[in-house]
């Protein structure tokens, strides 16, 4: 280390070492843990990972103690919310479990078009008649049925909505305290352009308005892949996904180190290379690594230089002149001048009273 720039690079490298890396981000929950580890590595406080609760996936806490929620998705192609559906064999029609939810409402508006797709509806009827929608069955039975009938065991249809805020409305309707969503490979987005408490759109963060695909499908209930011999249950649902074509990256990405520092500043924390974080990293580095005498002298020199800068900001380069200016400024103040005069008169009064030379009225006629 020979100068301040090298010291800053040294601290920067140490912070990057403290970041988690991609090895724990192999699943949705792993990605949430990675974000928390990276945020805390650069000195941003969090409430940890929410897990399977109604709270947002990740909660960050500003320097002044205010909490904000961030949803976390491992990919732009991940499921972004769903609505349950039912099949009525007597009417031969589908219904939405919760038509008041944003996704449910969108599917409900398309039911007429879905019911007019006879090929799709006939495939659902065939699966129902085979008993797969009513009860669990071995995956091997479904495979055998599909091969013997030539019909799909998990038919589906997709419907696109260009430029939609459906996903943002879905998360807000769930009551989760999430103002933002981080999508791996795309960056950080504002759920609602009208609700941007950290004013991130001013630094390039985009609102979550994207082309959406709603997939109405008969699918395995659960997330595991069915294998021969496994017992599986099929169910009807509608799932929303982002159509990545035309979906642009945001201007801030929490997977990038430099963007984390920008985000930290938006949360009201000190600059990256100032304050407790820099001191903490240097202290740990000094404990963990053997530094030469030259290195230590250079660090001490930089520390003194930084301390002098802070002092100069307050008192200026010439301490004597600064004090003189402050005294002159004080003496020019009328209130201060009067207060000093009253104190002086009181002292003189006591002196004359003690000496019993004359009356205090004489002193009162003195002009200051």
Tell me briefly what this model is.
This protein is of the alpha+beta class and 368 residues long. Helix content is 43%, strand content 19%.
Strand order of the largest sheet: 1-2-3-8-9-10
| SSE pattern | HHEEEEEHHHEHEHEEEEEEHHHHHH
**Alpha carbon gap, first and last residue:** 62 Å
| Tally of individual helices | 13
Give the mean pLDDT.
Answer: 78
User: Strand fraction band?
Assistant: 15-25%
Main beta sheet: 6 strands, mixed
Shape: elongated
Count every beta strand, where a strand is a DSSP E run of 2 or more residues: 13
Helix proportion of residues, in percent? Answer: 40-55%
Low-confidence stretches: none
Structural class: alpha+beta
Radius of gyration: 35 Å
Give descriptors for this structure.
5-stranded antiparallel beta sheet; 368 residues; elongated; alpha+beta; 13 helices
Describe the structure.
Among the domains are: 82-164 and 209-242, no CATH class; 319-364, no CATH class. The strands form 3 sheets. A 6-stranded mixed β-sheet has the order 1-2-3-8-9-10, covered by helices on one side. A 5-stranded antiparallel β-sheet has the order 5-4-13-11-7. The chain has a two-stranded antiparallel ribbon with strand order 6-12. It starts with a helix and ends with a helix. The mean pLDDT is 78. The chain has helices at residues 4-18, 28-41, 102-109, 111-115, 118-129, 139-149, 166-173, 257-266, 276-288, 293-315, 319-331, 334-355, 360-364; strands at residues 45-49, 58-61, 67-73, 82-88, 93-96, 137-138, 156-164, 180-183, 187-190, 206-207, 210-220, 231-232, 234-242. The chain has 368 residues and is of the alpha+beta class. The longest helix has 23 residues, at 293-315. It is built from 13 helices and 13 strands.
């Amino acid at each position: 280390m020979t100068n301040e720039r090298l010291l800053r690079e040294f601290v920067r490298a140490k912070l990057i070492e403290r970041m988690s890396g991609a090895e724990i981000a192999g699943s949705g929950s792993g990605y949430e843990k990675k974000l928390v580890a990276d945020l805390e590595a650069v000195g941003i406080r969090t409430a940890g990972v929410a897990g399977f609760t109604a709270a947002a996936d990740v909660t960050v806490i500003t320097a002044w103690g205010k909490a904000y929620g961030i949803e976390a998705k491992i990919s732009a192609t991940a499921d972004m919310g769903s609505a349950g559906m039912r099949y009525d064999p007597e009417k031969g029609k589908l219904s939405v479990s919760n038509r008041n939810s944003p996704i449910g409402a969108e599917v409900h508006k398309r039911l007429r078009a879905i019911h007019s797709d006879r090929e799709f509806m006939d495939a659902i009827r065939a699966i129902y008649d085979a008993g797969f929608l009513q009860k669990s069955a071995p995956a091997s039975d479904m495979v055998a049925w599909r091969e013997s009938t030539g019909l799909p065991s998990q038919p589906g249809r997709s419907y696109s909505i260009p430029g939609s805020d459906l996903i943002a409305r879905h998360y807000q309707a769930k009551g989760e305290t999430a103002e933002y969503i981080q999508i791996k490979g795309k960056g950080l987005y504002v759920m609602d352009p009208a609700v941007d408490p950290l004013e991130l759109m001013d630094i390039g963060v985009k609102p979550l308005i994207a082309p959406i695909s709603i997939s109405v499908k008969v699918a395995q209930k659960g997330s595991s892949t069915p294998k021969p011999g496994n017992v599986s249950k099929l169910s009807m649902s509608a799932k929303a996904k982002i159509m990545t074509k035309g979906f642009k990256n945001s201007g801030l990405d929490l997977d990038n180190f430099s963007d984390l520092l920008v985000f930290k500043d938006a949360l009201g924390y000190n600059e990256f290379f100032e304050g407790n974080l820099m001191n903490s990293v240097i202290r740990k580095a000094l404990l963990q690594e053997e530094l030469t005498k030259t290195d230590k002298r250079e660090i001490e020199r930089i520390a003194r230089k930084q301390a002098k800068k802070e002092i100069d900001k307050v008192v200026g380069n010439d301490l004597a002149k600064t004090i003189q200016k402050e005294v002159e400024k004080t003496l020019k103040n009328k209130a201060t001048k009067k207060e000093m005069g009253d104190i002086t008169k009181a002292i003189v009064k006591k002196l004359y009273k003690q000496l019993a030379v004359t009356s205090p009225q004489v002193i009162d006629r003195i002009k200051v």
